[in-house]
Amino acid sequence: MKSGLWLPSYVYSQELHRPTLFGNPSYKSSTHLWGYKLKQGSREEELNRLFVESAKPVKDEATKRDRSPLEAQREWRHEAEDNVLNLLERDGLLAPQGEVDKLLNTVANNLEVTNNIDEQIDLRCRVLLTNTLEMFSIGNTLVLSRGLIDVIPNEETLAALIAHAMADAMLPKPNQDQYAFSDILRLSPTEVLKQLSFEEGKTESVENSQKAIELLRKSPYASKLGNAGLFLKQLQSQSKETKAIDHPSAWK
Q1: Contact 121, 170 (CB under 8 A)
Q2: Which residues pair with 111 in a beta bridge?
Q3: Which residue would you say has higher pLDDT here, 237 or 240?
Q4: What Å distances lie between residue 90 and 93, 104, 127, 238, CA to CA?
Q5: What per-residue confidence (pLDDT) applies to 19?
Q6: pLDDT digit string (tens) for 134-152?
Q7: Per-residue confidence at 109, pLDDT binned at 50, 70, 90?
């Protein structure tokens, strides 16, 4: 807050939906604090100041505004997102950023720009190193599995899948905020697949599909959605044969 004075900025609060020994909800908290009214230094303190002339104007740190509650919440959620991504990459489940990510990000950017949401949400794509057909979102990150990417026949089908994941990312998910607590993610590689959950509910899936269609209709891929539809129909028709890879054991 000023020289020699450190004050708290936030303490986060959340009820965690996980079983406890006594059957009660597990609870963690964090309170956001701002707007400290600091008194001005005394006249004696001013006599001890050293003034240095500079060609560049000195920035007045006193005019720096405090973070709003919404900004603090977004920062907390971004921290939760990074914590999960770092954990998955540490355990070899998430590929390091590379050329495939750039391709996915290009398609996502096409959807963002044509729908005028590129300034509202900063999306990024990553690749999950599993051979199952799966995708999910964590914060603003869209995660597609290697197995899913390998069977996508064309760019418009990829756009349709990314649009669905994008719609999912645009929905608030308070249950993911808990991952900003570092102790929640102290998991072994085998525990990661059992403890982390990114599965969307049936209602969310329907809403995401409807939102994805809206995004695609305004995109450069609007005239080629028939090709994406054929792929999804073919995948649905072979659901019994591909059950093992359509219903992964991870992220339940």
Answers
A1: yes
A2: none
A3: 237
A4: 8, 22, 14, 34
A5: 62
A6: 889 999 999 999 989 998 9
A7: very high
Instruction: Return the pLDDT at 32.
Output: 62
Question: In the predicted model, what is the mean pLDDT of the chain?
Answer: 78
Closest CA to 110 of 97, 96, 125: 125
78 with 169: CB under 8 angstroms?
no
Give residue-wise pLDDT tens across range 31-80: 766 666 655 544 445 445 555 555 666 565 555 566 677 777 788 888 88
Token pair of 81, please?
A: 């997102």
Taking 80 as the threshold, does the pLDDT of residue 15 lie above it?
no
* Nearby residues of 46 by Cβ (< 8 Å), 6 or more positions away: none
Distant-in-sequence contacts of 115-123, Cβ < 8 A, 24+ apart: 115/214, 115/215, 115/218, 115/219, 117/170, 121/169, 121/170, 123/166, 123/169
The DSSP code sequence of the chain is -BTTB------B-EEE-S--TTSPPEEE-B-------PPPPPHHHHHT------SSPPP-GGGPPPPPHHHHHHHHHHHHHHHHHHHHHHTTSBPPS-HHHHHHHHHHHHHHHHTT-TTT---EEEEE--SS--EEEETTEEEEEHHHHHH--SHHHHHHHHHHHHHHHTS--GGGGGGGSGGGG---HHHHHHH---PPPHHHHHHHHHHHHHHHHTSTTGGGHHHHHHHHHHHHHTTTTTHHHHS-STT-
